[in-house]
Amino acid sequence: MSDGPGAARIRAVVVDDAVLLREGLARVLDEAGIDVVGQHADA
User: Fold this and answer.
1) Within its chain, how far is the Cα of 3 from the centroid?
2) In 3D, which of 12, 18, 16 has the Cα closest to residue 38?
3) pTM of this prediction?
4) Structure confidence at residue 25 (pLDDT)
């Protein structure tokens, strides 16, 4: 990803019933430089 001036960060919301999957995916995305702005269980 580009970190230069004016570069926009990607934001994501993670939705899944499986808590471990949801939290794990959020961590992987965060480590990749993607802002996880929310998590929610599938309704």
Assistant:
1) 17
2) 12
3) 0.75
4) 98
CA torsion sign, 16 to 19 to 21 to 22?
Answer: positive
Give CA separation, 39 vs 11, 24, 32, in Å: 12, 11, 17
List strand residue ranges (DSSP E) for 1-43, in order: 11-15, 35-40
Q: For 6-38, what is each residue's pLDDT tens digit? A: 678 899 999 999 999 999 999 999 999 999 999
DSSP output for 1-43: ---STTPPPPEEEEE-S-HHHHHHHHHHHHHTT-EEEEEE---
Domain spans, the chain:
11-40
